[in-house]
Here is the input.
Amino acid sequence: MRSVLAFGEVMMRLEVPAYATLEQSRTLHYLFSGSGVNVLSGLSKYGYSTRLISKLPANRLGDAAQAYLRGLGLSTSSILRGGEFMGMYFLESGFGVRSSKVTYTNRKESAFCQSQLEEYEMDVLLAGANWIHFCGISLAVTPNVREIVVALAAEAKKRGLTVSFDCNFRPKLWDSYAEAKPWYEKMLSLADVCMISEQDAIHILNWETKETDREKQMQDFLPKISETFNLSVVAGTIREVAPDGHFLKGFVLKNGDMTCSKSYRFPVLDRIGAGDAFAGGVIHGVLENLSSQETVNFAVAASVYAHTTYGDSPIAGLKEIQEWMESSFREIER
Amino acid sequence: MRSVLAFGEVMMRLEVPAYATLEQSRTLHYLFSGSGVNVLSGLSKYGYSTRLISKLPANRLGDAAQAYLRGLGLSTSSILRGGEFMGMYFLESGFGVRSSKVTYTNRKESAFCQSQLEEYEMDVLLAGANWIHFCGISLAVTPNVREIVVALAAEAKKRGLTVSFDCNFRPKLWDSYAEAKPWYEKMLSLADVCMISEQDAIHILNWETKETDREKQMQDFLPKISETFNLSVVAGTIREVAPDGHFLKGFVLKNGDMTCSKSYRFPVLDRIGAGDAFAGGVIHGVLENLSSQETVNFAVAASVYAHTTYGDSPIAGLKEIQEWMESSFREIER
Amino acid sequence: MRSVLAFGEVMMRLEVPAYATLEQSRTLHYLFSGSGVNVLSGLSKYGYSTRLISKLPANRLGDAAQAYLRGLGLSTSSILRGGEFMGMYFLESGFGVRSSKVTYTNRKESAFCQSQLEEYEMDVLLAGANWIHFCGISLAVTPNVREIVVALAAEAKKRGLTVSFDCNFRPKLWDSYAEAKPWYEKMLSLADVCMISEQDAIHILNWETKETDREKQMQDFLPKISETFNLSVVAGTIREVAPDGHFLKGFVLKNGDMTCSKSYRFPVLDRIGAGDAFAGGVIHGVLENLSSQETVNFAVAASVYAHTTYGDSPIAGLKEIQEWMESSFREIER
Amino acid sequence: MRSVLAFGEVMMRLEVPAYATLEQSRTLHYLFSGSGVNVLSGLSKYGYSTRLISKLPANRLGDAAQAYLRGLGLSTSSILRGGEFMGMYFLESGFGVRSSKVTYTNRKESAFCQSQLEEYEMDVLLAGANWIHFCGISLAVTPNVREIVVALAAEAKKRGLTVSFDCNFRPKLWDSYAEAKPWYEKMLSLADVCMISEQDAIHILNWETKETDREKQMQDFLPKISETFNLSVVAGTIREVAPDGHFLKGFVLKNGDMTCSKSYRFPVLDRIGAGDAFAGGVIHGVLENLSSQETVNFAVAASVYAHTTYGDSPIAGLKEIQEWMESSFREIER
Amino acid sequence: MRSVLAFGEVMMRLEVPAYATLEQSRTLHYLFSGSGVNVLSGLSKYGYSTRLISKLPANRLGDAAQAYLRGLGLSTSSILRGGEFMGMYFLESGFGVRSSKVTYTNRKESAFCQSQLEEYEMDVLLAGANWIHFCGISLAVTPNVREIVVALAAEAKKRGLTVSFDCNFRPKLWDSYAEAKPWYEKMLSLADVCMISEQDAIHILNWETKETDREKQMQDFLPKISETFNLSVVAGTIREVAPDGHFLKGFVLKNGDMTCSKSYRFPVLDRIGAGDAFAGGVIHGVLENLSSQETVNFAVAASVYAHTTYGDSPIAGLKEIQEWMESSFREIER
Amino acid sequence: MRSVLAFGEVMMRLEVPAYATLEQSRTLHYLFSGSGVNVLSGLSKYGYSTRLISKLPANRLGDAAQAYLRGLGLSTSSILRGGEFMGMYFLESGFGVRSSKVTYTNRKESAFCQSQLEEYEMDVLLAGANWIHFCGISLAVTPNVREIVVALAAEAKKRGLTVSFDCNFRPKLWDSYAEAKPWYEKMLSLADVCMISEQDAIHILNWETKETDREKQMQDFLPKISETFNLSVVAGTIREVAPDGHFLKGFVLKNGDMTCSKSYRFPVLDRIGAGDAFAGGVIHGVLENLSSQETVNFAVAASVYAHTTYGDSPIAGLKEIQEWMESSFREIER
Here is the structure.
């Protein structure tokens, strides 16, 4: 059983039920997630051994988060415990033409965001693993975490793990694109596999294209990214959002083979984490040595499916996704 | 007030709320249903005296089921009590392109499925009734229940009750279509009224048709079924399923008059039991001596409406359905 | 900060959750609303000082209602307390093609509906206010409330407040259109601003038009209403209802300038109170001295947005509505 | 199976969960009860055929109430339907030293309280019954219901039914004890069996006693009541209330034999309806021809047990109560 | 109507329902409270005009908190808005011999704890008020809030407001008693009324006593405190905690008159905020010019009662508390 | 980190909330437990590596159970997957003098109860473990499980694991004590550590004692059991049950040293699994080489504490229990 690591923050999500706002309700549903958690949750359901590298506070919230992650199938043996706080976000779900609203607590004070490079024992953390995944959010939160990301990626690469990096740019966490640029370039150089959008290429890498159509921009940028940063796999999606559903299409360039999935149009139950489901699907495709086309088909299907399940973390197994891909829509399985 | 009987199992439905899965939730909503229960629930709302012939365990679950059925308007005086278990199913509701998933407990060990013919006192059970309804699920569950179905139907026919039979084929409960064929033929021979699909004719009865269009297959098969088995009424629906709603169209052949309803396209709240609502509508049409066209119109409307109400058992009365049929969609009734 | 008053009943709404009926559930969600409450709730979120003139029973239900209204941002200092009862309505939410159903308790016996003109101290109630809003429901409930409406409106006009009147005709509360006609004419004569539909003009005012198209009827009637009753602003909407969403378009005639908004098509979470959101939007437009076009754009946007939020009372602030108007649909704000 | 009738109002109970107040919550739990409902609910669980004579509004609330009562095991075939309203009460549960608070809606306007004698067809209603039960609340609500109570009791007595009457005096529903006195005397004269407290004798009947101890007062009054009104059975309880539980002791005089139960001390889950459980126990004792001692033992046990179950209506069967009486406290039955 | 101010932080309480832990649940109940909020909530129910001086973040959490406080009856016009975060605490309720557990988020980063003296406009904030209340928690959180507390108290005293101070020492928020001592002495010097315990005197003030009995220590310290700091009123309680309930006794020294209440023993629903209920009771006693004995009786009754109501903030009115004090325990009020 | 195994069934618990019955509710809370699960849950919180040997159905219920167990901290790598069904029980919680009621589904048909010895690969399952725990329920359910228990215990003993056995006799699962006797004797012979009650000695082992007092019977039997079956540790508790709480006292004989704990009296939140908490405490005592007195003190404290936490499975860690033992009751920890 191959072993996949991810590095990233664990956050508590506190969601107002039934489309009400924080002013209207008295009740919240909560769960624990994070970009790394979500990628590993999907991979765990596909049968991989998964382990999260993170830090949780040494209190009841940290205990609850740890139990939740174990329930998702992740090993929590590489989660440091210490400090007092964890990042949280409140989610007021939108309806139809009304957007969802996310309100964060002070995540920069979290045990994870305050953790220091020297707390992470590379030898122990990386032992026995085949793959390690990072995302752009970790790169953004605090200088010390940024440092840990680069150090872990470099060390992992040195030890022969495959390194994947999901650009996942969050504008509010950076002062400017220019601030982000060197760090993204560093991580793209260290990575073997990356998930990136045409927007990332334009804004973060500050690249230009003559194309105005988003699909063509993707087709333009993906090979350049692969070449520039010596990446074996580059993947991304184009999403369009409408009140009654989303459109999603995936692109994968693998060993020079550039392909795209068919387009999906579908209603959305829970949007958060669906990008991580795509990343997990790509990782699975590479680990299983699927073709470029098989990889993008699976990764997009995993992502579409994740839009229809509750919570941030993908919960569908290989069989469930594959049956859904192969068969037409079935109403009730009994 | 005319009295309608149905024979069938009572099952406990345990539903994960809010589109979550069993892994994600800590809470279930439950109710009690079953094909016979659902048919009678609708007929009870239309003003008929309804009585279920079944068996429930002699414990708290049986008590709770009995109370629930009384709340639906069914007489429970013909429900045997004894044994220990009842059939249950867990429902994880799908969303959009994701299907619902049903997980059964060991229903074959239920008090009903283990009940024996000699426990059922024909004289008492059939006394004072005008109609008795059966469905193909009862025919499938266990050999002893299969025997009871046929014996009850034969005895009811002898005593002058109208016998209806809803084919309602469940592939997982039979080893093969061939195993089912003689039993279905037996029940169709005993019945005066049946609900059947073109798939049932092709697969169970092993009939052939030159038509490839489903509607034309229905129009081809219904008269043949009526003639072959000497049925006064044959009815069925064609359903198509899409993530954003269902399409439904009904067909009724009554005393040689073959008609169909208009097609409906509608979003679905709760799919289970909507076929039973159609069966109940057909029974109402026959008991009220409605025309073939009035019957199919009402039965399909009852079925469409049942897709929009919570739970397996239809809960709308005659007035509610008729107002809905007659008027265009009204938003709030106040 | 300008001060807006409204006169109207506070009602308790008791809603069956999750699309179930009163027979199927054991749980209700409740809140407190009313046409005047809803108009003021929206205006309170836009930054106005709002005060409701009403009467609540001197018991725990009245206490709970008062606390709820304060939570919405209304001043409750002009709410009389006394009597025993309050109006309530039970809401069974429809789904898709199934309509919502509202069942009222005996609201005519409520503390508000039984209140007498002499309980209302004009000097205190109207002090310091710029605007007072009334609606046709108050005109309908009981003779004494009808008398209070007209007396308050006349007194407010005399003191220089702007008077607005939303026709809001409820057929079940009147014996006939003829009974309503003189009272509506009286209120339109006292008002400076009114919200009215083409149906109101045809049925209540008993006016005729050659137009058959609803939009053209609006364009025909609005200027006539403005002239006949000497109203500076006349506004209204045309709504069409379909199972998968509503269509809404607004019309405003302001100082002779007749304009309409664009048409919206949108899915609906909670329909009740969306007309009050439109009224609040019109009042805001007049108080801010917006153009006719700006007024109708804002008022319709506020109304569409209110269809997507839980509860009867609009809860969105100026910034939230304006951002929604200006930007295309955004999925998650984080 | 002997058939027991009761006459009385059906009320909707709306309860704030988890000890919160109406100001603090957004959710209510609801059920339907009433003194007659509660007595019959218990008797239904003991195996009697039970039927309620009442009136419910012809709307969704009436439908929901009827379904609930059927779920309790009552026949609803003698419930008139018509009118618009039903009585309701809001329950804010006390905790420890804090009392529960009940807030009523306008029950005097309910379909039941407004029903007229001529709506009740004696021949149909009383047919086939062995017993009819009344309570003092029905005597109090409105003059027309008062008239129905007396007429039904007289007619029942004439037809040979046993008549029971639970004094159940509610001070807030009467102007004075003096107003109640002639009506209580009338009902005591018509009854064969009554439930009464020493307080009722002192305040309503205006009787005197030299005893100051409540138990001695009971022992003093019960024989006098039996003689004065020619009652074969007179029963009552003495209750004392403390924050951590209640004390209860029962008294029964049957055919001249005066006995009392042992005293119970017990914590209370739901107090409402426990007096009706005692009345039901007494009725069972008389119908089963139990001795005076057996009757009071069972009736008090049924009442104590009803304090420990959720809701107003007793839900325990004979076996459950008898096992509890016979055995010492058992922790879990598995 | 006299106007009472309080200065203090507003916190979000997130409570796991039904005695579960954060690991076991998926749901939280939330509300907003704080020591100042609680004191004003009680006073608001007694009929005073109440206004909180605080700061809330300029986001959806701040909006929700503001709406909640208005629902409690507080004016929120003196609450600054700005910054991003608010203090939160998670509550896992104990049961029987198991203690409740509180886990805080990083409250020191809250908008309130980071607010600066210059943001508070004394002229506006103190205008029209008769009284201002502070508590020891505000003194503890951050140096800037500590500075605001002292400045506000001094300014209020100068303007003739009565100043009250509840010592409310929280060991975890201070490095040592010695660190707290000068600040407590400063506030006691500025205050007219204080709430203090014998433990505060011993540990914070570092006073000595020969008494070992807690009651005698109180009687020893209270006059000394009054003299030393020139306080007109000094009040405190002695609490003892047992699994099945608490014991509470109050002490008030007012204008040299030292009295105590009777002792109460009672089961507890919600402990948090009961000390603030005592403080509010003392303030009421002083504002109403009640005697020392009346004051302590009322304040302790208000505190005991607050242990029996849900939430941190007292919700009982004068009438409710006084009826409870005057009458023996009543079971249901209907 | 020492590794502890347990063998036993995983059951689904479905609990009616808020003291209602299955007839009264529409909602259930569910979790997964079992005697082995509970023992390991406690040990996992104490820091041991824990692994359950069991079998779960290859469906969504099995998935949900597996996720739940991982959340408790158990390794699920030794849980076989296959078959269709799992054991379930419905829990209706008692209140005060009313007992809880448990209703089982057909557990004998569960994947676990139908599993065969040959499915269990001893080499894999027992590898790396220090201890294995069994309980009498596994011995009772089906002949094949009985066989597995004995085979696993024998094999474990052979490989040098410590074997513990909790007698945990369930009368309903055996035909007679005589049927159980040889199997219990077999397991006691194989075990190194056992948990047993004086009732087990009398009824199952058919031993006699002159003592009539339960404590003295324990003191009489424990040494005999130790000698007869060559057990290094024998432990047990005496429990007495009353409506307002339980009494518990523990006994441990370890290496010839017979001691008992102090007696506890405490209110109970959730009784199920508290015996397993005692067993886990004893195992901890032995693994940590605690003295006889320390072991019994800790084991009883763990058991008492488990009565106060929600769910079957102990959730308290070492620190939490030890702090509770050492300190007097603390009300809120903040």
Residues 143-158 of chain A form the longest helix (16 residues).
